[in-house]
Specification:
By secondary structure, the chain is of the alpha/beta class. It is 42% helix and 12% strand. It has 3 domains: 3-305, Thiamin diphosphate (ThDP)-binding fold, Pyr/PP domains (Rossmann fold); 342-519, Thiamin diphosphate (ThDP)-binding fold, Pyr/PP domains (Rossmann fold, 3-Layer(aba) Sandwich), CATH 3.40.50; 541-664, 3-Layer(aba) Sandwich (Rossmann fold), CATH 3.40.50. Helix 5 (121-140) packs across helix 15 (413-426).
Length: 665
């Protein structure tokens, strides 16, 4: 068999596995894997630096299938390359418990670097991975000793580029001259609705050139030599990210569905599948057949990968001899361990410095811990002065200062969230990003994916309620706390004062299994008197008894700025002879994780409860129960000083006390 015939056989094996898997599942997207099989073969077999025997080695290339619906392209390539994705898992495509779900999921399938499916997210994740690579390379590489030197690759389709997120992320990448980011645009000119001409006639080449990217064209994706040439040129464009536009034909090989929307999101059908295999020259009739010659050829990638990783290990050993301190630090960061003793840097607050907005307290905590945790890096979406996310005395991350830790994400909330995900997925960094809470809506898909993937990311959401005042209803969040609390595996923390803010940062930095949202005030809050109240360390348990009485007749619950409202209401009730407990509830999610015994000690069964929060009441009903009441806001805000707004919207101690009296009648 000639080399050309062997390569075609290897490529067609990807195509037939994709067709068979989608047909067996009676669900999926066969057309794009059929079209892009030559590109996947070229990357996994010729160009990518990867080792199927060790999918997580630190200096591997990262590959992101942003067009996640084409998951069988990735699963087939992983199986054939020698990753732990057996053929039986290909047979079980989209079935319960298989390693081959409908869209790639990181941590679920060896070799999958990120969870993709919501279009555009993968592009931005890839940008974040390239950012992390540049930061770590600039931090640890020394002359003659390079331990961080890899490329991030991605494949995107029309849907990825139509999503606005792709604009934000590509603009950010071009500005930062991320030369180790190489992407491919699958120019198949078909979407679910039909021809792309129905909705989009962008000049993709001109668009990405305007972003500052290197752009190349490959007229026929089946031309492996042309792919090699374009990839070589992209590697040489070291000061620019690269996009290679490849012309493909969706459903390639299918005589009746090639270049049609029907090839996109449904099985070919048994008759058309047989015709497609015949057109491709496939002589085997049994489904999921992998020819021995094709498998042997693909599996040479494993031998090359092991040799490449062995060479890197030798480099790391030499590096450790020359730079033992740096090598130890690199290992710590890539393993995800926090530095020893970092918690001692968390500041305490007193009456001299603690009567501040929680956003201001957050800035103090960030600047105290950042020198102890060098991998902590981030910024805000053009709101650094409001979010107080700048680490003082540290340069910005720029093309000229890649060791910088302050990020200027620009007015790109969605990209900020998705780039943070890529940074976290890469490893070696802890990303944080800030904006106003109301603009969490702009980045919610990225927040959801961070939670789904279990990635550490810290969101600094300031201006948390009508308490921001005069900017009015466009900037005053109402439903946002409840909406964020609905996302599984996201910890939302709304601290009541500076002391709770410090503890909230402690929780966020320790939380390695998902993202954390810090929800902070614009207005100043009084530092709670901990000599009379419980210590702020209770934040770690989500809710804790802040003010107690021996046998409470009513329990008042609150978060953030409304904790003081609850305390004032408790004072009024106590003066009337009503024993009252006040519970600070900075995090519903953390409280739900506590054992039933602890929850019962904080919220004793049978005692009526009143919750107060300057936000939509929905998320509180589970805590107050049937014999409870919630003082909240279910309409939009208004422009006025915050004191007037709290009065007009009934977020007052009087309203809370009245609700408590009503429950005791």
């Amino acid at each position: 068999m000639s080399i050309a015939d062997l390569e075609l056989l290897a490529i067609n094996t990807v195509r037939t596995l994709a067709m068979d898997a989608v047909q067996a599942a009676e669900s999926g997207h066969p057309g794009t894997p059929m079209a892009l099989a030559p590109l996947a073969y070229s990357l996994f077999h010729r160009h990518m630096r990867h080792n199927p025997a060790d999918p997580a080695w630190p200096d591997r290339d990262r590959f992101v299938l942003s067009a996640g619906h084409a998951s069988m392209l990735l699963y087939a390539s992983l199986h054939l390359s020698g990753y732990d994705v057996p053929l039986d898992e290909i047979r079980r495509f989209r079935q319960w418990g298989s390693k081959t779900p409908g869209h790639p999921e990181v941590g679920h399938t060896p070799g999958v670097e990120t969870t993709t499916g919501p279009l555009g997210q993968g592009i931005a994740n890839a940008v974040g991975m390239a950012v992390a690579e540049r930061s770590l390379a600039a931090t640890f590489n020394r002359d003659g000793h390079s331990i961080v030197d890899h490329i991030t690759w991605f494949i995107a389709g029309d849907g990825d580029l139509m999503e606005g997120l792709s604009h934000e992320a590509a603009s950010f990448a071009g500005h930062h001259k991320l030369g180790k980011l190489i992407g491919f645009f699958d120019d198949n000119r078909i979407t679910i609705d039909g021809s792309t001409d129905l909705s989009c006639t962008d000049d993709v080449s001109a668009r990405f050139s305007a972003y500052g990217w290197h752009v190349a064209m490959v007229a026929d994706i089946n031309d492996l030599s042309a792919l090699d040439t374009a990839i070589a040129e992209a590697r040489g464009a070291v000061t620019r990210p690269s996009l290679i536009i490849v012309r493909s034909h969706i459903g390639f090989g299918s005589p009746n569905r090639v270049d049609t929307a029907k090839a996109h999101g449904e099985p070919l059908g048994k008759d058309e599948l047989a015709l497609a295999k015949k057109t491709l020259g496939w002589t085997w009739t049994d489904p999921f057949h992998v020819p021995d010659d094709a498998l042997t050829h693909w599996r040479t990638a494993r031998d090359r990968g092991e040799a490449t990783q062995d060479a890197w290990r030798r480099q790391l050993i030499a590096y450790a001899r020359a730079f033992p301190t740096e090598a130890k630090e690199f290992g710590r960061r890539m393993h995800g361990d926090l530095p020893s003793g970092w918690e001692s840097a968390i500041p305490s607050f007193d009456q001299k410095n603690g009567n501040v907005a929680t956003r201001a307290a957050s800035g103090v905590v960030l600047n105290a811990v950042a020198p102890q945790i060098p991998e902590l890096m981030g910024g805000s979406a053009d709101l650094s002065g409001s979010n107080l996310t700048t680490v003082k005395g540290v340069p910005a991350f720029t093309p000229d200062t890649p060791t910088g830790r302050n990020f200027f994400f620009g007015i790109r909330e969605h990209a900020m969230g998705a780039v943070m995900n890529g940074m976290s997925l890469h490893g070696g960094v802890i990303p944080y990003g800030g904006t106003f809470l109301v603009f969490a809506d702009y980045m919610r898909p990225a927040i959801r994916l961070a939670a789904l993937m279990g990635r550490q990311a810290i969101y600094v959401f300031t201006h948390d309620s009508i308490g921001l005042g005069e900017d009015g209803p466009t900037h005053q969040p109402i439903e946002h706390l409840s909406a964020l609390r609905c996302i599984p595996n996201l910890i939302v923390l709304r601290p009541a004062d500076a002391a709770e803010t410090a503890e909230a940062w402690r929780v966020a930095l320790k939380n390695r299994t998902g993202p954390t949202a810090l929800v902070l005030t614009r207005q100043k809050l009084a530092l709670l008197d901990r000599t009379a109240l419980a210590p702020a360390s209770g934040v770690a348990r989500g809710a804790y008894t802040l003010l107690d009485s021996a046998t409470p007749a009513v329990v008042l619950l609150a978060s953030g700025s409304e904790v003081q409202v609850a305390l004032d209401a408790a004072s009024a009730l106590s003066a009337e002879g009503v024993p009252t407990r006040v519970v600070s509830v900075p995090s519903h999610e953390l409280f739900a994780r506590q054992d039933a015994e602890y929850r019962a000690t904080v919220l004793p069964p049978g005692v009526p409860r009143v919750a107060v929060e300057a936000a939509h009441p929905m998320s509180w009903h589970a805590l107050v129960g049937d014999r409870g009441a919630v003082i909240g806001i279910d309409r939009f805000g208004a422009s006025a000083p915050y004191e007037k707004l709290y009065e007009e919207y009934g977020i007052t101690a009087g309203a809370v006390a009245a609700a408590a009296r009503g429950l005791l009648l």
